[in-house]
Amino acid sequence: MLYSVISLTVPSRVTNVSVTMSLEDGNLNLTVSWTTPQSELPITEYEVEYEDVSEVMNITLSGSPPANATILSELDAGVEYIVIKVRALSEIGAGAWSEEQMVTPADSECIGVSAVKRALSTLHVIVKELSHPVHINLLCYSCSLLFAKHCMTNC
Questions:
Q1: Is 95 helix (H, G, I), strand (E, B) or coil?
Q2: CA–CA gap between residue 140 and residue 31 (Å, rounded)
Q3: SS3 (DSSP) at 30
Q4: Spatial distance between the Cα atoms of 139 and 101, rounded to a whole number of angstroms
Q5: Per-residue confidence at 19, pLDDT binned at 50, 70, 90?
Q6: What are the residue boundaries of the structural domains of the chain, listed by start?
Q7: What CATH class does 15-103 carry?
Q8: What is the pTM assigned to this prediction?
């Protein structure tokens, strides 16, 4: 009797991890996204682990297939966050962690942020005069912080 051995491997390393900062309705968010890695079996979960100076936080994304992005919300401006790890999991096990990503959300003292906030308050007055909803996106070129606001006529 002949037997054949089939060797399956865990998913490959997650690559192209990207972190985008945004400020939406006063909340500072980091959107973390990545490229789906190679895997012989379907990916069942992603783990995202990040930390600030005081604690380590972990998010698990599951699904069929799971999303390859997540939003870390309501973070503190000026605190350095390290998106330490993103990895894919399959039925066989966990793949290698991605490379670390270091991000410091914009300090509220950034001169560009102040200018963007002034522009938003000016737009707020203009939007009050409109009769339909408006979505506003402004980017601070000093620190690359994206400000997003969805305004109704009463915003």
A1: coil
A2: 17
A3: strand
A4: 21
A5: confident
A6: 15-103, 111-151
A7: mainly beta
A8: 0.65
